[in-house]
Amino acid sequence: MKRFLLIFTLLCSLAIWSQNSTVQGTVSENGQSLPFINVYLKGTQNGTATDEDGNYSITNLSPGNYVMIASAIGYEPFRKSFLIGKGESVKLDIELTQSAEALDEMVVTGTLKAVSRLESAVPVEVYKPSFLKKNPTPSIFEALQNVNGVRPQINCNVCNTGDIHINGLEGPYTLVLIDGMPIVSGLGTVYGLSGIPNSLIEQIEIVKGPASTLYGSEAVGGLINIITKHAPNAPEFFADAYLTGWGEYNLDVGSKIEVGKKTDLLLGVNYFNYDEIIDNNGDNFTDLTLQDRISLFQKWNFKRDDAKVFSLAGRFFYEDRWGGELQWTPEFRGGDEIYGESIYTRRWEILGKYQLPIDEKVLLSMSYNDHNQNSVYGDVTYLADQRIGFGQMTWDKSVGNHDLLFGSAIRYNYYDDNTPATQSADEVWIPSLFVQDELKLAKKHSILGGIRYDYDQRHGNIFTPRAAYKWKISDNDIFRVNAGTGFRVVNLFTEDHAALTGSRDVIIAEELKPERSVNVNLNYLKKIYADNGTFVGIDASAFYTHFSNIILPDYDTNPNQIIYDNLDGKSVSKGVSANIDLVLPNGLKFLVGATWQDVSNTENGVTQRQILTESITGTWNVSYTIRSLDLTLDYTGNLYGPMRLPTLGELDPRQDFSPTWSIQNIQFTYKGLDKFEFYGGVKNLLDWTPNRGNPFIIARADDPFDQNVQFDPQGNVVATADNPFALTFDPSYVYGPNQGIRGFFGLRYTVF
User: Which of 367, 384, 483, 616 is the least buried, fewest Cβ under 10 Å from its Cβ?
Assistant: First the structure.
């Protein structure tokens, strides 16, 4: 009897086994088989990798509907549904296509023309919208905190305005572009990175080091180019909304609309609101500035019979932000009873590109922006208007081994404010000419040379040359050397809001001269593809920048003043930086970066570290997808080494140097529903804030108008029983955000 039951069980098992099914096939690209490609069935544990000949087989499948997914570094993900019956063997061949996310994606920023990243003589870092999603933020300004060598710097504890530091250089040395147009500068430097709808961003390109030869005087330390989507790549509709535990709300909506047969319209709206008054550090000042912001963006793409470029785009931006004492309301704006900093910003921009209808590659580009700011810092009013127009024509021409670029540009600057530094409106036209030649010396070697000529009626003739050398050791190894010069004219109050906040007096010691710089950058790029599907990418650089006539705020000579003058000496920024990109066959991904830098100023033989500049920077991004659950985990973070801080004299009890600090985040994203993504997590897991280890952050927060501060005949603060540390009101002691740990939850909906 037992033997009969055993035989019966075996027969049943065999019958059931015979009903199990198999899917098999070959993975290839353009007819070439691809080995070691990950192949799996969505929502199951069934998966494998192709063998050396690109073949795969998944067995023991129950009858039903499945979704086949194939993925590999450098290729677009493959998805296809199929039905399989009992005991059936299905043949499903997979054809993969190259992905724009590979290391050879197209870039335009380094040379003003679209080239493969691997072929560019200028090293360019590229970040896709998928990078921004790993740690969702309400603006690109905050999103850049996870880019190695790039740091968003908050410049004021009250208004929370800031700028972008690249390789330790102050924000005004970074030029921000939208679609290659320099429309974010001066007043817009503080606000230009806010409110750009993430749904319409194609990629962000970053060049570290001077790019003045192609982009003008503000690209001294580097540039950030935000490239918006081309209509065919944009989703039909996109919506992304999230809320944090602090009450921050962000809404991002985008859409693509066909207007007739030859016109596509991209629309984008970003709305951000934060209206919770929070004071966790107990100084009676808002820890985070309250904000109400809206940005509207539209881009028209016109289809031409000859496939030449023709596009027009526009953006409108409005923001109302304020921070200050908790009792502040708009009725106290500009008064001396309750301290508050209130900023109304209105800005609009237009930009366009038109490729001439001729055989040669000639492109006409233009942009214009109008920026109005109405702000008060306590009882100090700052009213400013800025208008910038820009027109440029480029001719891209190849002759033999020469890849030539000729260009002519004209820039119109108008700036006026109510500060003592602006006696009358500043209005200037700056015409420019530039030429660039990339010469291929051999199959693996090329050199690039360029020079730009600008005429500024205030400073005369300006020449900014640059040179680059590229050695393509192999398809997976590239070595680059870049050298260039920079020239920059300073608009003091538009770039440094510390000059307006607090109670320090602003002293302009002399007529400010333009700043000049010389930079050298070495870069090595390496790609490694292992047989088991592992990918390793290494991008390492060494940099050196020497400044003359640099203008820096002097907080040390007199604690009651900010003194601005040209440095009688030199300023040097030098360091090394590296990024490592690691992708394992199981789907685990690592992006780790580190930078060591030494930024110092030397005057009268004395060398001192530059204020608010870190020594070390670390960033990381770890991602893993649990395929059976359609769940992705992202762990992101950064680490910053000590930086010198602006204290108010020897009696100031606050630390002269910041500690080494880190902000870390975790996020879970669920993609199990068609067209929907649900995400949530925790920001600032370590609950780090700058007040740790400090008795206070804002000096004399209880007396913001210095009504009870006593001064001696020389203007120095006198220590009293009410003011034992001899301080004045000062919110400029800031080096990181005041927001502690907080949760967030969001939803994305996309229709392609």
Answer: 616
